[in-house]
Amino acid sequence: MPSRSNVSLKVMSVIGARPQFVKAAVVSQALKAHNIQEILVHTGQHFDTNMSDVFFKDLDLPTPDHNLDIHSLGHGAMTGRMMESLETLALAEKPDWLLVYGDTNSTLAGALVAAKLHIPIAHVEAGLRSYNRTMPEEVNRLLTDQLSELLFVPTPLAIDCLQKEGITQGVHLIGDVMMDAVLMYQVKAESCSTVLVDQGLTPNGYYLATVHRPGNTDNPDKLRAILDAFGALDAPVVLPLHPRTQGRIKEFSLEKQLAHTNIKRIPPANYLDMLMLEKHCRGVVTDSGGIQKEAYLCRRPCFTLRPETEWKETVETGWNQLVTAEGLVSAIAAFTPPDTWPNLYGDGNAATQVANRLLTHF
Questions:
Q1: Strands (DSSP E) along 125-185, which ranges?
Q2: In angstroms, rounded to a whole number, what is the distance separating the alpha carbons of residues 140 and 152?
Q3: Are residues 33 and 62 in the same domain?
Q4: Parallel, antiparallel, or unpaired for β 171-173 and 263-266?
Q5: Per annotation, catalytic residue among 66, 212, 242, 280
Q6: Could you tell me the pLDDT band of residue 48, with boundaries at 50, 70 and 90?
Q7: Number of domains the chain contains
Q8: Is residue 181 domain-resident?
């Protein structure tokens, strides 16, 4: 690690979940290119090998300087334990900035610790709003944006959301670091990933589905309806099964629905395999925020199993539809691809802008 005398800036980056690993991979490269020292902290929120370790390997993400190994707890206990450990690290490392991503418990824990220690906070993917405060992610992003000194927003709509809340200082429209990641890793995915061959998949011959949000998985009737809808689609459904969803299926005795011949269950996929699955599927069905955006970046239609989305731009373009489990089959059958694909998320230089702004505002 470079000495403090050889670097212009010291940044502590807090990550903990799959989407944050992808974003941090491109930002970490930009920080290194700008001679910014990064202290990378993994909270452990996603700890399964397929949800964590493999991402660091495939994305060439530096090994974390600290791994807090905090996971499998309720929201309060998890956030509290993260704060306790992050406070100790921040006091020892004395970073010039604390950098957080997205909207997880790791994001909020980092922001709260930094605010109390008077360390300026930079928030990548600021300004997103679903306006559904029953979602933990919405609470996390609202509070983090209020505490941040630098807010890196992906779209003009995110700026509008912040302005409605009176947040106008330190807001920078940079595009989306996920666009950087897709552009950076799609060539590697094409050359390295064998997931289509391994799973016997034909391009445009399957749907890709992910389900993990409590609103869908913690209600047995809703989860059963989702699995039944997958079984009724006009092509096989590839389902990388999230560990908590797998647990709920067992808890609710829904193994019969999961065993439907139309559902092809696979383990959680690494980022390179997900890129290939997204790029070559007939369409994406998901309740994930990040997968909605990845589907758009791969120019695939998306059907979102939620009543709202923080990525409203994708709905406005016609590439994303909000659906219920009961309406999924008919929505897919009636779908017609839009004639245009607007570039919503920048030119692939968002990570470089993060590094530049951190230096400029130091």
A1: 150-153, 171-173
A2: 16
A3: yes
A4: unpaired
A5: 212
A6: low
A7: 2
A8: no
